[in-house]
# Entry
Amino acid sequence: PTAEEQQFLVQYFQQQIQQLQAQGLSLPSQVLDEMVDDELVHQESARRDLVVAAEEVQQEIEQQFGYDRNPPTPTATPITATAAITVTPMPTKAPMTEADFQKNYGEYILAVRKNTGLTEAAFRRLFESSLYHKKLQESLADEVPTTDDQVHARHILVETEEEAKDVLDRLAAGEDFAALADELSIDTGTVGGDLGWFPREQMVPEFEEVAFALEPGETGDIVKTSFGYHVINVIERDANRTLDEAILNRRTASALEEWLAERRYSEDVERYWSSDKVPPTS
# Structure
C-alpha cells in the first residue's frame, strides 16, 4: 500500500470495501423489502388465479442448468466449396443428457446445503417465487393502457434567461417559432424545435408542467431546467392518443416494479422488524 504505483488500486479497493460496508448496513431492510415483495406477489397472484405448478418449477431449473428435454435435431447443411477448406471445424457440443443434469443438479444441491444450509425445498421455492413474479408481470403488462393524454410541442432552448427573453420578444414581434429554433436553440437534436408527441413523465417535471398547462397554439413563459432556459409552444393535444411503441414497451416492462412500489410501503403492509432482531455474528 505504500508503493506509489499501487495507490490507484489501494483507493479502488478502499472504495469497494466502503460500498460493501454500506450495503451490509442496509442488508436487513433490503431483505425485508424482498420478503414483502414476495408476499405481495403471492397474494395478488392468488387473487388473479395465477398458479405455478411443480412441473413449471422443474422445467425452469432444467433450463437454468442447460438441460433441454427435447433438443432440436441438428440438420446437416450441404456445403458447396470452390476452394480447398483449410480450417478445421470446431466439434459441436453434445446436448446435456438427463443423467448429466441429474448429476450436476445433485452435486449443486449438496454444495448449496453444505455452504448455506439451504434445503432443496427452499431452493426450489426460489424458482417458484421467480415464476410468480414473471406471471404477475405479464398479467399487469396486459393491463397497461395503450393510449394516454399527450401533447405535440416544440421548444427553443438557450443558455441564459436574457437570451430566452430575447426569444419571447422576437416571437411577439411576429417572427416564426421554427425559424428561431433553428437559429438559436442549443437543442441540435430537433428540427424547428419540434419534440413530437409525448405523454407525461417523459420530460423533466418543470418542462412537463408548463407543456401540459398550455392550450394548442399557446406559447408559455420562460421555463428553467437543468438543461437551460426553454420557451415552449404547444402545437396540438390529444387526450387519448396511442402511445409510441418504445414508451409502451418501457411501461409494460416496469409494470410489476411500479405496482410493488405503490404497495410496498402502503398502510396494508405492517413491518415488525427492528435492529435488535438481528442475530449476533458470533
About this structure: The longest helix spans residues 7-47. Residues 2 and 10 are 9 Å apart (CA to CA). The chain is about 50% helix and 15% strand.
